[in-house]
Design goal:
By secondary structure, this protein is mostly helical. It has helices at residues 2-21, 30-47, 50-66, 71-88, 91-96, 105-115, 120-169, 174-229, 233-243. It is elongated and about 90 Å long.
Length: 254
């Protein structure tokens, strides 16, 4: 939500600034938009397979929507689960409670491995590989966004050069100077807007959310492994705090 709010506020600031100086239509130039938007997409297609580009919006949306969990809250959640599992000492009870964690598929996967009697070492290895695969998928989205952020200003510069060439070629026709100058200036503007208000901020946000997701998945993995080993939850609390940032460490047991 903060990502969407930030982008809307940034665009609103730009729009209001433009509106104070004159009509917004003065900043609408279809040829310039065509050069920057479609040009950026076309050039980015050279670097990435089409199937990856198609999946990027969904990957980013899923990550930004589900990747906002608080590590401390998830650590406490795991500790509660470990305490309940130790008290009941019944693997079937753990299996019946899986539906409570359907909003965290990675944790459910770890608990299913526990229920299936998978060894702690194998649980840790499987979940580590799964976490790495998911992180790699998200980082491809980051690569795409950063590439698009590099290309957009370049396409703006190309549009500027096209406008200047048209301008210099029609100096004897004053009616052509205005449109050519509009393309020259507005394509640079569009490229800067796309790069610095859309692609680069989204890339940074996606990268940060990916790091947070990896951390939380690591907590889930440690919790599932500890439950499988039937360890004391107090020891699990100590282990979780070793990977949590100092400001996010938890004190569940007094």
């Amino acid at each position: 939500m903060s990502t969407l709010i930030g982008m809307l506020v940034a665009f609103l600031i730009v729009i209001v600034s433009i509106a104070y100086g004159g009509p917004l239509t003065a900043f609408l130039n279809p040829p310039g938009l065509l050069i920057v938007v479609l040009g950026t997409l076309a050039v980015t297609l050279i670097s990435f397979p089409v199937i990856e580009i198609i999946s990027v919006p969904k990957n980013i949306w899923d990550l930004l929507r589900h990747g906002q969990r608080d590590p401390s809250t998830e650590a406490v959640r795991i500790l509660k689960l470990a305490v309940d599992a130790r008290k009941s000492n019944d693997i079937h009870e753990l299996e019946r409670g899986l539906s409570r964690y359907k909003d965290t598929p990675f944790l459910v996967q770890g608990l299913k491995l526990v229920v299936d009697g998978t060894s702690p070492e194998e649980i840790e290895a499987i979940l580590r590989r799964e976490s790495s695969t998911v992180a790699a998928k998200h980082m491809r989205a980051v690569d795409f966004l950063r590439r698009a952020g590099d290309v957009a200003p370049a396409m703006g510069l190309i549009g500027t050069l096209i406008g200047l060439v048209r301008l210099l070629g029609n100096l004897d026709d004053p009616s052509q100077i205005g449109p050519a100058m509009a393309v020259a200036l507005l394509t640079t503007f569009y490229g800067a807007i796309l790069a610095h208000l859309v692609f680069i901020p989204l890339a940074t946000k996606t990268e940060n959310s990916t790091s947070e997701e990896v951390l939380i998945n690591n907590l889930y993995s440690m919790g599932a492994t500890s439950i499988r080993r039937q360890e004391n939850p107090r020891r699990l609390e100590m282990l979780l705090n070793t990977v949590l940032p100092p400001a996010k460490r938890v004190t569940y047991f007094k």
